[in-house]
Each structure stands twice: as C-alpha cells, then as structure tokens.
Design goal:
single chain; about 70 residues; mainly alpha; flat
Length: about 70
C-alpha cells in the first residue's frame, strides 16, 4: 500500500518550535499567576487521587474475588 504524502493532503510538517509548544500553554511557574499554578496543581492532584482510588478499588475487588475462589 502506497503511503499518501502529507503535502498532498494540504498539511505542512510542524517546525521544532511548534512541536515544543504543543503542551497547551505555559507550564506552571513560567509566566503564569500564582492562582493559575495553584489551580493546575490542585486539579491534577484531584485527578491523581481519583485514579488511585479507582485503581485501589479494582485491585481490592480482584483480590476478594481470588480469595473466595478456592
């Protein structure tokens, strides 16, 4: 199967500067306000906590299932 060239589709390859700026904006602590940094860390901490609770619950449920199989 022949690959289509990206230029034929009307797209242009990104430059290295454009590729490095694909993080969605300034990183915390670099030209952002304290309130923005605080909201960033609090929201990601909340998402991390939710993921850890879900992972713990899934592991505990699997452990209980295996415990009573014998």
């Amino acid at each position: 199967m022949k690959k289509k060239r990206i230029e034929l589709l009307g797209c242009q390859p990104l430059t290295s500067a454009e590729l490095l700026s694909c993080n969605g904006g300034d990183t915390p602590g670099q030209g952002t306000s304290f309130a923005n940094d605080l909201a960033y860390y609090v929201s990601y901490g909340l998402f991390w906590t939710i993921d850890m609770v879900r992972a713990f619950g899934a592991g505990a449920a699997k452990g209980q299932k295996l415990r009573f199989q014998a």
